Amino acid sequence: MNGRPEVRITEVRGHVLLAPDSDASLTSSAQDSFLVVIDTDAGVTGVGEADVNPWIAKACLSAPGTHTMGRSLQEVLIAQDPRETDELWRRMYIGSAMNGRRGAVIHAMSAVDMALWDIRGKLAGQPVHELLGGPVHERMRPYASLQPVGTSFEEYRDSLCEWAARACELGFQAVKAEVTMSGPYAHSGLHESYDRHTEVVAAVRDTIGPDVTLMVDVQYMWPDAATALSVLRDWEAFDLYMIETPVWSDDLDGYAELAASTSIPVAAGEWLATRWEFEALMDRGRIAIAQPDVSRVGGFTEAMIVARMAEERGLTIVPHCWKTGVSSAATAHFAFATSACAFIEYLPPQLCVETLRKELAQDNIRIDGGAIVPPTAPGLGVDVDWDAVRRFEVG
Ligand SMILES: [Mg+2]
Question: Could you tell me which CATH number the domain at 9-125 has?
Fold first, then answer.
């Protein structure tokens, strides 16, 4: 068919990886990983990663089912042509529909889809962004995503400022400060007043000066839009590029209220799965900046649909990524093929404490003059350290 040689999927493996120093009281999803490895009869192997509880993802991938629409993803994939990414996405979605249609099932599918595109690129001898339509940016600006450490207000503030300064020294022209000392995502059990959050944002802005782009992520901290607005009024003076996830993910009317009431662009979408969840966030939530995560939204296949939706609506894309080098590389390929993309989240190995980010895979991302250069290696272009996979595997 099509004059091209047949290629078939022969094996799909899910690896549950855990950092030996992981601490469940922390709020970093980079302490574990779900890595999917797909083999083909052409001798080409693809890798993908999901940002979700890896034990749950493994069940989505390989648990037995007793219904034609309650199947594992693996059952759908074996013996199929890995290059048929649209058709395989559809079959996985329909075949697993009774398992949830959203959330963990789609996150697990994201790792599969990422691995399929890695295979497609390797078979074609092209980087994934070429197969997604080709690069529409000469360079892509990364922002350094900074999650502070520390168990007191002072430690938290000082660690954040120290890392912000180091990010600037490394050449980053944009940083995102996670300023979350209250609410469901509060770091290290902290519970501080909103005034102290304002103090931290001011300290980071002072540290980096007026010319570096500053974003702030409060991780669903405020209970409602009115409370968020009462604080954001003070933050308008800090010239923020965006405020990320100010209220709970399902509070779409709260997002719309904020969008209408603050001059700071509102960003959200890191947890979402599928185009349909983004449609609601964009059209009812009225966000300015959509943050699909390739390792959650449904892989490249679905992320590109969300990118087109943003482009149609005149919205900006700033993809979320908080995983290992596999996802960092995937995010870069997605960004280069997306005209609405303004920045990518980048967790610099030098500026984080996560063992898996440092040791699992080389993303081979090249940063030149503070900006990322389009990757050139076939597929994702990542080098997975298979010894590290064996070392960290727990299931
Ligand atoms: Mg976030």
Answer: 3.30.390.10
